[in-house]
Amino acid sequence: MNRLAGAFALEAKVLWRYGVVAIAAVLAALWTGLLLALPASGAQALVPYLLFLDTAGFGALFAVALLMFERVEGTDAARAVTPVSPGEAALVRVGALALPAVAMALPMIAVTAPQGRLWGALGHATAGVALTSVLLVAACLGLGALTRTLQGALLATAPVIAPLVAVPLLHLAGVVQSPLLWAVPTTAGAELISRGLTARDGIPEGPGWAVALVYAVVSATALCWWAARQSTVTGEERAGRGGRPPAGRAPRRGPAARARSGPYAGPGRRVHPVLALARYELVGGRRDPLLLAVALAPLPLALVLRWAYPAIAEYLRSAHGFDPAPHACAVFGALVLLHVPVMVGSVVALRVTEDVDDRVLLVLRVSPLSLPAYFGFRTGTALLLALVGLAIAVPVSGLGPQVSPGLVTAVLLAALFAPLVVLATAAFAGNKVEALVVVKGVAAVSVLVPVLLWVLPGLWWSPLLVLPPTWSLLALPGYPGDAVPPWTVLLGGLVTAAAAALALIRRMRSRLLG
């Protein structure tokens, strides 16, 4: 028991050191403030989804990032000489990452609980958040242990996490009501959250609900056991089993090695190092297709919004008396306009972070591919993919306003947010865990800015002008700047984005060169 307590204390120190606890506190404050700023009916309708989607899943990706970072640092090999087994460490990590989720949920539940039902809401909703968090963290930890890279782990977890999240959402929204939904264990967690905050009774009733709850607890226990079993194989052992190239075959060369080997494509032909890196990325996409997946993701995202949003809006009107139609532009800004650039920029930023962990940037200093060229390629890729993604998602989603110079201005300025995400991650993150902290913060900004700019009265929104995403929203109908000529908004957004990029580049240069 003493070794488990020591392992938990060490895990808590790691989470504190890399900013996981800090970003949890920041997100809790931001979401609580947002719920207080919204009308009571809107806050009570939103909070179950916010608790389930964001808060309960807070630690899932951090579990994977910590696992991959420990492999790079050799922590999993060092643990072999300690009394704590890898399986026990995995169980401790599941518990340590579930606690911040519960702590984040407490103030959000307190400000939205129905009158006279505070303690009941706290009991039900926190239990639902804890149960869902354990399920998601354990699933991600076990799947991450089967992969060798963060990119591979994200691809491996996506098909499993998607139904664990999507099915309970269908249940919460009332779009589908079927006993089959309870086969997904996270549905019980979502129902606990809903019962605590809305007093809505779901299916099944009576003994069926008890069976569903026991099934979810048993599933969480089984997932924790499975994650612990997968974690008993260290990174070095897994590499020895299948991660290293076969004898007699040269290992695949990374972008730095490809560039250092010479900017030649054949006899008499010279290829620029950036073009060599682009060719490597295109070829490498077959082995590590996450960037290709995120490039294609805006289309299914837009199709899901086009299909699901009308049903969710009708449910909010009938069940909560909240009509989202007057707030369509705010919804469009948060779910499409800023979500696509953040999604693209986050994936490119994680690729940069992996290169940092693999010491690729050190090799670039003695290769024909310079650091400015490398970051120019990464940010340019993020900008191009964001523009293409927005060009697809904006018309297909059906949430955006009619085509106009203001909408074109909004799309152009929103696309600039993707390279800024890459630069911010490179400027403030030194490893995968810190990169996810930065990405979490950026994602929160992309959701909060459209809402705050929409609900704040008078000139209370003016401090938000220092944030580049704000300018992409000003040109949309209903926002404070919709009466300003689009070229004025475009100029202001370009200046703000350029200033932010210069500040981030200076910070990044001082950190990397230092």
Automatic annotation (TrEMBL):
It comes from the Bacteria. Keywords: Membrane, Transmembrane, Transmembrane helix. The chain crosses the membrane at residues 20-40, 46-69, 90-113, 125-146, 153-173, 209-228, 289-309, 329-350, 371-394, 406-429, 441-464, 484-505. The keyword Transmembrane helix applies. Residues 235-265 are annotated as: Disordered. Residues 244-265 have a biased composition (Low complexity). Pfam families: FLQE3_permease. The keyword Transmembrane helix applies. This is Fluoroquinolone transport system permease protein. The lineage of its organism: Bacteria, Bacillati, Actinomycetota, Actinomycetes, Streptosporangiales.
